Amino acid sequence: MNPSIIVQKVNKSFGKKPVLNEVNLTIGKGQLYGLIGPSGAGKTTLVKMIVGMEKANSGTIHVLDEKMPNLAILQEIGYMAQSNALYLELTGEENLKFFASLFKLNKDEQRTRIAYASNLVNLTADLKKRVAAYSGGMKRRLSLAIALIQDPQLLILDEPTVGIDPELKLSIWNELLRLKNDEGKTIIVTTHVMDEAERCDMVAMVRDGAILASGTPDELKDLYHVGSLDEVFLKAGVKQHENLGVN
Amino acid sequence: MRISALIKRITLQLLRDKRTLGLMFVAPLLILTLMYFLFNGNTVDPKLGVVGIDEQLVKGLEKTDIQVIEYEKASSDTVIDKDLDGLLEADSGNMILTLKNDDTSKAKALQMKVNQVAAAQVQKKLIQQSPAAGGMATKQIDTKYVYGNKDTVFFDVLSPILVGYFVFFFVFIISGIGLLRERTTGTLDRLMSTPIRRWEIVTAYLTGYGIFAIVQTVIVVIYAINVLDIVLAGSIFDVILINLLLALVALALGILLSSFAASEFQMIQFIPVVVIPQVFFAGIFPLDGMADWLQAVAKIMPMYYAGDALKAVMYKGMGLGEISGDIIALAVFAVIFIALNIVALKKYRTL
């Protein structure tokens, strides 16, 4: 089975500032893949490039066997940005409907998908309210529901659980695992919360625009001879700084 | 269809935002009304004292809304004592007009009126005496009006331009900030992660805001003509057509410039740079007197063409055929700005 995403030798800089440096990444179909790293490491830029919203300076990205950017493939990608990106004047349902029509779902599909997605994030009762009246957590949940609206094969979630209470966070993670296990979806999650990284099949450590290490959480712990991903993260960071010092 | 989904969303958003709607629909009417009263303000009839003026002339003066008061004898002191605006005396065949001139514009207006009435009378007399001489007299005292009539006020000349300018201004601001908000809240990014094409976004924005621009244009034009009684010599449909084209230009320009603004605050900063200068070249100030380079600048201002076209239709009563050059110029502006918009969105996605 072909991998869902192949990132090859990708470089990206904004002006003179390099953001990504020779990034290689392969994500298999049906994997829950975590990109972990501090803020400003380049995680968001990397996922945006996978979606096709940013162009690489060099290197190639393939998603579902198609070279990105590719409009048709976007139909199969559910993307949730770091910012909530919602229309505050509209109700939750209107937001969902709008995005559903962008993906060309017909009326029946729209109804079932909106019911499914809003139920998943516990917003069914609040669908008729304007988003301006939503709490921070509700906006985050609606944003997640939008990412799921067209039933995409591939989910790319940029820090999906920021500002969500622990109980809901758990239920979202359980749902992500269910989507992966039962429906075979490929999911990319960026996070800087290590206990979330522990639940991923594979993790890649992103720091200063480069992938320092990747593997299963256990492999990474073995690699650095430590007991937790937190420590892996710290050690990887120190090691990189040492390398930079030598260079 | 994606475009219609986007149009529907934009419409809903605007309908929910009552204040912005108010700004778009009511603010232009408010300003127009204010300007109307400002420019038609000094309609207080001037008071003119007369001494030894023949009855016919007095009647003529009274017809032009001059309050004429006859005196046996008067001097410049009378003007001050009786609070007159002027004094007209007949002195052995010649007439002397003494103006109080405490308000120069008022004095000038009065002077003009008196001259006109006197000239008309002289002309009439001449024609009565010898029709041949009448032709000569008209050459010397020119009281003919090419456009407008004796009731024409400055506002009538100005208003066609103002109608267009307000449409331009408010459409520019609201559409520009509309797309800008989409950028700053991240929803544009999110749109770009769906299979929508760049031209579909531009089309939807133009249509969505275009609907409101049409409503605004129609309201402003109808209000100006029916309530404020602005002169409309030509066809109202031509006026609306010109304004719609102008609104389209403003719409495309607003959306385009919003790509160069990082915040609403920065969008507002385009007003003095882009919007205000338009009014200088819209025909309120005569272009012929401007320096050559300024005249060249005027040619790249959409309002220059719109102002010219509106003045031609509303004031001079011309038809579409005579203003086709302006119409084409506006259409070219719109096409250029729309194309640039599609290019500017490349910043977000190349497809």
From TrEMBL, chain A:
Q: Which Pfam families match?
A: ABC_tran
Database matches in InterPro entries: AAA+_ATPase, ABC_transporter-like_ATP-bd, ABC_transporter-like_CS, P-loop_NTPase
Tell me yes or no: is Nucleotide-binding among this UniProt entry's keywords: yes
* GO MF terms held by the record: ATP binding
Superkingdom of origin organism: Bacteria
Q: Which UniProt keywords apply?
A: ATP-binding, Nucleotide-binding
Q: Tell me the SUPFAM superfamilies matching this sequence.
A: P-loop containing nucleoside triphosphate hydrolases
| Protein name, as recorded | ABC transporter ATP-binding protein
Ligase as a keyword of this entry, yes or no, is no
Q: Domain ABC transporter: where? A: 5-233
Automatic annotation (TrEMBL), chain B:
Keyword line: Cell membrane, Membrane, Transmembrane, Transmembrane helix, Transport
Predominant localisation class: membrane
User: The organism sits in which domain of life?
Assistant: Bacteria
User: What Pfam families does this protein's entry cite?
Assistant: ABC2_membrane_3 (PF12698)
> Membrane-crossing residues?
21-39, 157-180, 201-225, 231-256, 268-287, 327-345
Domain ABC transmembrane type-2: residue ranges: 107-348
Membrane topology (UniProt): Multi-pass membrane protein
What's the family? Belongs to the ABC-2 integral membrane protein family.
Check the record and name the PANTHER family matching this protein: MEMBRANE COMPONENT OF ABC TRANSPORTER YHHJ-RELATED (PTHR30294), TRANSPORT PERMEASE PROTEIN (PTHR30294:SF38)
Name of this chain's protein: ABC transporter permease
